Amino acid sequence: MKRIISKLLQVSMIIVLVACFGMAYGQNNDEYTTVYGVVKDSKTRDAIPFASISIPGSNIGTVSNSEGEFTIKVLKSLEATEIEISHIGYVNSKFKIQPSNGKPGSYYVDPHMLSLQEVVVRPESPDMLVRMAIKNVGQNYANTPSMMKAFYRETIKQRRDYLSISEAVVDIYKSSYTSFENDRVKIFKGRKGVNIKKADTLLVKLQGGPAVSLLLDVIKNPDYLFTNDIFTDYKFELTGIVNIDNKLNYVVNVIPVGVQPYPLFNAKFYISQDNLALSMAEFSLDLSDKTKAESFYIKKKPMGLTMTPTSTSYLVTYKMQPNGKYYVNYVRNEIKFKADWKKKWFNSYYTVMSEMAITSISNKEAAKIPSDEAFKQNMVLNDRIQDLQDENFWGSSNIIEPEQSIQNAIKKIAKQMLKSQN
Question: Do 166 and 235 fall into the same domain?
Answer without folding.
Answer: yes
